[in-house]
Design brief:
Blueprint lengths: L18 E6 L2 E6 L4 H7 L25 E2 L18 E3 L3 H16 L9 H9 L24 E3 L9 H10 L4 E4 L6 E4 L15 H5 L5 E3 H6 L4 E6 L8 E7 L2 E7 L12 H5 L14 E2 L8 E2 L2 H19 L4 E5 L5 H15 L4 E3 L2 H14 L17 E5 L3 H4 L1 H12 L3 E5 L8 E2 L2 E2 L2 E3 L6 H14 L5 H7 L2 H11 L6 H8 L3 H13 L3 E5 L1 H4 L4 H14 L9 E4 L6 H6 L6 E2 L3 E2 L3 H11 L11 H9 L5 E5 L3 H4 L3 H9 L3 E6 L11 E4 L8 E4 L4 E5 L11 H11 L9 H11 L8 H7 L2 E2 L43 E6 L24 E4 L1 H6 L7 E6 L3 E8 L7 E5 L27 E7 L5 H13 L4 H4 L1
Parallel strand pairs: 1-4, 14-15, 14-25, 16-17, 16-21, 17-20, 21-22, 25-26, 26-27, 31-35, 32-34
Antiparallel strand pairs: 1-2, 3-4, 5-8, 6-7, 9-10, 10-11, 12-13, 12-27, 18-19, 23-24, 28-29, 29-30, 31-36, 32-35, 33-34, 33-36
Helix pairs in contact: 8-25, 9-25, 9-26, 10-19, 13-16, 13-17, 13-19, 16-17, 22-24
Amino acid sequence: MNLIKDIDRGTPASAEVEQVTLTIDGESVAVPAGTSIMRAASLAGTDIPKLCATDSMKAFGSCRICLVEIEGRAGTPASCTTPVADGMAVVTKSDRLERLRKGVMELYLSDHPAPEEATEMREMAEMIGVATSRYLPIADHLDAPCDTSNPYFDFDPSLCIVCSRCVRACDEVQGTFALTISGRGFGSHVSASQEEPFLTSECVSCGACVQACPTGSLQEKALKAVGLPESSAITTCAYCGVGCTFKAEMKGEEVVRMIPWKHGKANRGHSCVKGRFAWGYATHKERILEPMIRASIDQPWRQVSWEEAIAHTASEFRRLQAAHGSRSIGGVTSSRCTNEETFLVQKLVRAGFGNNNVDTCARVCHSPTGYGLKTTLGTSAGTQDFDSVEQADVMIVIGANPTDGHPVFASRMKRRMRQGAKLIVIDPRRIDMVRTPHIEAAYHLPLKPGTNVAVLTAMAHVVVTEGLTDEAFIRERCDLDEYAEWAEFVARPDHSPEAMEKYTGVPAADLRGAARLYATGGNGAIYYGLGVTEHSQGTTTVMAIANLAMVTGNIGRPGVGVNPLRGQNNVQGACDMGSFPHELSGYRHVSDEAARDLFEKLWGAPIDSEPGLRIPNMLDAARDGVFKGVYIQGEDILQSDPNTSHVAAGLKAMECVVVHDLFLNETANYAHVFLPGSTFLEKDGTFTNAERRIQLVRKVMAPKNGYADWEITQLLANAMGLDWTYTHPSQIMDEIAAVTPTFSGVSFARLDELGSIQWPCNEEAPEGTPIMHIDHFVRGKGKFVMTEYVPTDEKSGPRFPLLLTTGRTLSQYNVGSQTRRTANTVWHEEDRLEIHPHDAENRGIGEDDWVKLASRAGETTLRATITDRVAPGVVYTTFHHPLTQANVVTTEYSDWATNCPEYKVTAVQVSPSNGPSDWQEAYEAQAARSRRIAAEAAE
C-alpha cells in the first residue's frame, strides 16, 4: 500500500452547466460558471497558497494568502471568494503577490510555533518561501493551555491561527454549531460551547473540525502517539447502515487514523465519532485470538489449534445430525460481516448441513421492510440514494433517530433543513431532529408506542378526503381497482385523525397539518427506522408508508421515496445474500424450483424445498429436544434478541453452540466452541448499505486471529465434506453474481473502477441503479394494501401501566461489543432509563436513582434520567450494556408476517430499587464463570 494523496481544490465544485473561458497565467482554462478562481487554477494544474480554504466548505476569504491579480481590476482579491468570468485574465505569480503573501505568512508565524509536523501550515510556509518571521510580537498566545479532555483529539490554542475552518466545519458539515470564535481582535480564539472543555461541550466528536484544521491545533492523539502514516487504503466503515467510506492510514500494522473519504458517495467526506475514532476494539486486550473448546458450559475454556477446533466442530455437527436428523442443526449469519462471508454461511447451511435452518439479526430489525416493500413496490429495499435528500422539500422521519443512529446522514438532513426543507417527526420521543440549533421540525407527532399504522392511515385519510392525491401518477403507475378499494377504506370516518386520536394521542389538527404538508409541500421523502419495523404491525406500517408515498406520487425521482435507515453496516447485504430460512439470495423463495435448480447445479448439492427455522423456532425446538447445534457468526443473540431468559434456555438446551466472534460475548456464555473472528480492517470483501450501495472493504492489516472470517467458514465447510477452493473474496462475489440477478453485473473489478455500485446492477443498469421505480414499479403496477390498525396484544394496565420503548445512542453501537471496548464509554458508560418528571414524581424517583424495570417477561435494574423527552406514560432505554440486559423485559410478541420482535412496545412498571437485581447478580456471576480460560492453556 502507498500513502494515498488527495487534491484539495480549495472551494466546492460549481453545479452550473454553462462553461466560461478565462486565462490563468497565460493559459486558457474552461470551467463551469460560478467556479472560484482558486478551483479553476487547481483544475489547470496551478496551486494557489491557502489556509482558510478547503473544497468541503464554502469559501470564506479570511487568511489572505490566496491573493491574485486580475487584469483590469484594482487590488489583489482573494481567489477563493472571487468567481471566474468569461474573458478574465488572472495572474497567480508576481513579485507583488509574493511580497504580500510572505508578509501575511510572517505575521502568522510571529504568533505561532515553528511548524515541525507535516501540516498544511508548514506546507504553505514552504510554498510561499517563509521559514521564520521578521516580526517580534509584543504579546503572543504561545503559552495557551492545551485542552486534552477529549479522548480522541487535543486542542492546542497556541497553534491556532483563527482561520475559522473548524467552526465552519462544525456548522456547515456536521450541523452541530458547537464551536465559535469568541473574543475580538488579539483576543479572538476558538471556543467550544460556552468556553467549555471539548469533552463536556456540545461537540459530538465527529472529527470534522480535526480534519479541517490546517495547523495541527486540533489533532488526533493517535497521530501523536503512533507517528505519521506510511500507507493507506480506501475502505468502508463497519458500524451503521450509512456505509461511510474512509481512508485508513497505517504505520506498519497499526492504524494511525481513519479519515472520511470525500469521494465516498454515502458520506461525502463526513464521519461520526464511531467510524472516525472508535476502531480501537481491533486491538483490545479482551479480543480472543485463539480457538477454544469445552465439553460443557460450566467448564473453563481450553485453547486449541485451528485444526483441532475445526475438526471438533465438524465432528460434533455430524454426530448430532446422525443421531437427530439433518434438520437438527443450523446457522446464524451476521449483519456485521461481509456479503461474501454471509453468503458462505448460508451456503454451508444449505449445501453442507442439508437444510434451510439459517437466520440473521437482519430479521429482528428490518425483515418487515423486505416483506412490505416487496409486496407494494416489488423490491425488498429502499428506493433512493442518500444524495436524493438534497432535493427533498418535505421529509418525514418516523421511528428513527438519525442524529444518534445514522449521524452522518442526519447532518445532510439538517443541512437541507437549513436550506428551507420542512421536517415532520413521528416518534414517541422528542428526538434531536425535533429541535436543535438552527433547525426545527414543522411538526412533531408524539404518538403512543404501537400506533404507527393508525397515524399513517389517518394521514392517508386526509390526503384522500381532501383531494390531495396525485391522480396522474396513480392512473399511470398503480393498480386502479386496488387503489379504489384502498381509497374507500382510508376515507372511512373511523380512519380520520379525529377518530384515531383516542388511539394515537396525536392532536388531530397537527396530524392533518402534517399530512397536508407532505402531500402539497413539493418533493416528499420518508425515512424510517426500527421504530417502524420492530412492532407487531411492522410489515403493515411499511406498507402504509408505501401507500402514502404512492398516493402522493412521491416515488421514482430525486428528492422523494421510501427510505429505510438500516441499523448495522450490512443489514441490507445480509438480507440480499439469502440469510432467511425461506429465501435464497436475491429474495427467491426456496420453493421456487427454477431458483433451486440454479443453485443445485452450481453447488452440486440438493437444496431443501421446505423453509427452515428462524432463531426463535430454533430456540423452541432446542427446548423440545429436537434442535441440537448452531453455528453463530458475528451475532450476540443472547443480548440482542427479545426475552433473554427464553434465549438462554434455548442455548443451554443445545449440545454444540459454536460462536464465531471477536470477543467472548454474552451468547458465548452458552457456547461449546469459540472461533475467533477478524475485524473489517483484516479482510477484503463488500458491505451493502441502506441505499443498496455495494462498497469494497479492503484489508489493511493481517488478521490477528490468523484467518479472515470467510476462510474460517471455508475450513468448517471442507471439514464437513464440502470441497470449497476460494482463494479470495472476489471469487465469492463472482459466484453471488452468477446466482443473484440483482448482482449480475457486480464484480470486485467493477467496484474498484466505479467506487461503488447500487443494485440492481445488470445488463439494463450496468453502473447500478441510484433511484428505483423511475418509469415503472419492479412488480409492474404499484399495489395499495389495506392497513387496518390492530392494537398490539402487549397492553399496559394497572400492574404494568407504562410503555417501554428502546433505541440507541450516538456513541454506542448495537449490543456494544465493539464500542464498549473503546473510549466511547466516556459518553455512555451505562444504559439509563428515561422517565417523565410526572411519572418519576409519582413513584418517588429522583435523578440518578436506581430503579427496577419490570414486565411480564422479567425485570432488571438501571439508573433513572428524568426528562420531558418522553411523554407521560412512556419510558425509554438503550440496550448497549450486557449488565443491564434490557431485553430481559421485552416480550416474544412479534410482527405478524416476519416474526420481527416487538422491541418498541413493552408494558412495564418502574419502581425504586437499591441496585442491581438478583437476576443481574446471578447473570454476572454466571458470565464470569463461563469466561474462565484454563490456566495451562492461557500461559
